[in-house]
Amino acid sequence: MTSATREKELKPRVEITQISGTEIEVNMGPHHPSTHGVIRFILFIDGEIVVRAVPDVGYLHRSIEKIAESMPYSFFMPYTDRVDYVAAINCNLGYALAIEAMGGLEVPERATWLRMIGVELNRIMSHLVGVGALPLDLGAFTPFVHALREREHMMDLLEILTGTRMNNNYIRFGGVCQDVDDEFLKKLEKYLDHFVLFLEEYDRLIGTNKIFIERLKNVGIVSGEKALSYSFSGPNLRASGIGLDLRKVDPYCFYNDMKFDVPVGKGIKGTVGDSFDRYIVRIEEMAECEKILRQILSKIKEGPIQSKVPKKLVLPAGEAYHHTESARGELGYHIISDGKSASPYRIKIRTGSFASMTSLAEIFKGMMVADVIAYFASLDIVAPEVDR
Amino acid sequence: MNFPAAHLEKLAKLVDSVYNGAVSSEIVQADTKIPVLKINSRDIRKVVELVVHHKDLGFTYLNTISGTHLAETREDESLDLKGFEMFYVFSNSQDFSSLAIKTTLPENNPEIDTIDDFSGSANWFEREIFDLLGVNFKNSQDLRRIMLPPDWEGHPLRKDFKEGSHYNGIPTTRSSELEAIRIE
Amino acid sequence: MSLYHEMPENIFVTSVDQLLGWSRKHSLWWLLFGLACCSIELMHTGGPRADIERFGSAPRGTPRQADLIIIAGTLTYKMASRLKLLYEQMAEPKYVISMGSCSNCGGLFDKAYSVVKGVDQIMPVDVYLPGCPPRPEALLEALVILQKKIQKEKYLRK
Ligand code: SF4
């Protein structure tokens, strides 16, 4: 179907909603097989068309921000894992960088490299869940199993690097918790050789599938302007054609020295900013992560992995807003220290998923119910990042 | 991204010139990487309007809104008061340089004008603060609890929040059997 | 001559209880339901390496077709009534595995104001599985323990 015919098809649908005018209230979630975690929508539908949608979140609100106020800075690190369990090391890194900036702590070079390995591996794993769960929500189970298989390999690698499969709690203030030997680096390199092939195969399997394309193209179009207004960030914003990557515009760690491209949505199958763009941007980003990982492997050197950090860390009074590029977009920590106690006065966590959620009510309007799922899945939202 | 110093001066001048000194603003370069513009809470809409829509600024991207309950005195002199602190972070959509706007609200009946017509995401950020801190946003489109169930009482991120012993018949603490044995 | 001697290779002698237990324990269908981080490990248990389906456990999308609910993750007060509803919709006999510290006792979120401190405060639990998160192997072990329990049950005499 070309976009013109699609447009034509859309028109009468809207008119029908005006004529019949009977609304049915449909509840979707919080337990629904195709919501990512526990998120609920109340859809007011007329036939197949959504007239109005009310997203309801908070089913996984775990009071992480309140808990932070009751414990020393370093104790909070495991909780940052749980902010986004699919990309845990990313959240560790954002928190550690914010505290290090406030306290003026040094990080040894090797530790930064190791952090970057963890972060990029985690980013790939997270995007794999994103592109794997998307066809799952559209009714194809197999691609998800493929993604899980690759994730198992990467979890093995992470297990060597950090000691756990997920919720790694890997990063410490001023360093990382454990070192790796050269064997790991060799293993990682070997795995990357395999991963390139897998990624290509996966994209050929799904990205060229007619049904998959038809379900996603021209669905849930978010223009660049709208994406900015809804505070989109990360892959979702880039899919709308705005090439904004905090690793480029506000570099941290050694991202300055890394050569990588920022993939943006070009509307290859339909319009810029449609759901297919969000899929393809994630696929391309995984390829970029692989490039970054190879550069890290060629540059990493021996050295210490932990600098001296006081046991009882008391930060100077003041506040900081520090943001990094997590797998789901801008991850910002707003930290306030009162200068006296060893625990933060307040930590506010800004996450990409929360911002993406703000768009739902408006974008859902006028969509088919089946497209609601497609759009929502393409945003790659995880519930704990929304609710914290 | 570090905010260019030239921008900073421009901003202070702009705020002054547009509102002829009617809006009190003060730029503090706190130890955050981004400059913070301190304003009076009643001017929030004017300043946000300027920051978002002025052609030289164009901070159209709202990163986040954060709120804090200040209950205990903090060492930092400028913050030595009771009440609520609001912290808005905006970014420029071109180069992504950021800017923060900070304002304080009184302890009793905290209220501030909504900014949800400037950004599509502002409403949710405001709802979260309303839910967890109990700050009221005047003229908001839709101010409901977002994280907690609608029948929840209290605002948990306030420093003086006390948890009840039960919620809807579910005990909020777990009796430790080990401890019970020890006491016996 | 008895039937047994006529067809010596095709007949087992067993009690009905045992036969029922044996067939029930190998078709434990679980509800596709995840709450938090543990649900990622739950997904991996269904994935290619751990492959929970070799134990006869297939995921189901609706509680009405499920025998087993695996509570994988943190249960909040807002979610508690929904979970209860899901549990009540399941047909008897139904079983519950509480996966992870959070659903066992609140775990990391012991101090949280919005988290139920242990799922056993709202519904019965058959197997508690510690860990944060438990590995897929651990979840398989929990399943095997549950299977042993089912085998021993005198279902008809209940
Ligand atoms: S037990 Fe640990 S891994 Fe599981 S849901 Fe709770 S915090 Fe997450």
3D structure, described in words:
The complex is a heterotrimer of chains A (388), B (184) and C (158). In chain A, a hairpin with a 2-residue loop joins strand 6 and strand 7. Chain A folds into 2 domains: 3-56, no CATH class; 64-379, Cytochrome-c3 Hydrogenase, chain B, CATH 1.10.645.10. In chain A, helix 4 (88-103) runs antiparallel to helix 5 and helix 5 (109-138) packs antiparallel against helix 6. Mean pLDDT of chain A is 84; it is low at 9-17. Chain A is of the alpha+beta class and 388 residues long. Helices cover 50% and strands 12% of the residues of chain A. Chain A starts with a helix and ends with a helix. A 3-stranded antiparallel beta sheet of chain A has the order 1-2-3. A 3-stranded antiparallel beta sheet of chain A has the order 6-7-8. In chain A, strands 4-5 form a two-stranded antiparallel sheet. With 184 residues, chain B is of the alpha/beta class. Chain B has a single domain, classed as 2-Layer Sandwich (Beta Polymerase, domain 2), CATH 3.30.460. Chain B contains 4 helices and 9 strands. Chain B has helices spanning 5-19, 44-53, 122-133, 177-183; strands at 25-28, 36-39, 61-70, 83-91, 98-105, 111-113, 136-138, 166-167, 170-171. In chain B, the strands form 3 sheets. A 5-stranded mixed beta sheet of chain B has the order 1-2-5-4-3, covered by helices on one side. In chain B, strand 4 (83-91) and strand 5 (98-105) form a beta hairpin. By secondary structure, chain C is α/β, with parallel strands linked by helices. The model of chain C has no long low-confidence stretch (mean pLDDT 84). Chain C is elongated. Chain C has a 3-stranded parallel beta sheet with strand order 3-4-5. A two-stranded parallel ribbon of chain C has the order 1-2. The longest helix of chain C is centred in the C-terminal third of the chain and has 17 residues, at 136-152. Chain C has a single domain (34-151), classed as Rossmann fold, CATH 3.40.50. In chain C, 37% of the residues lie in helices and 11% in strands. Chain C has helices spanning 3-6, 16-25, 38-46, 77-89, 101-105, 136-152, and strands at residues 30-31, 59-60, 68-72, 95-99, 127-129. At the A-B interface, helix 9, strand 6, strand 7, strand 8 and helix 13 of A face strand 3 and helix 3 of B. Residues 36-38, 73-74, 100-102, 107-108, 132-133 of chain C line the site of iron/sulfur cluster.
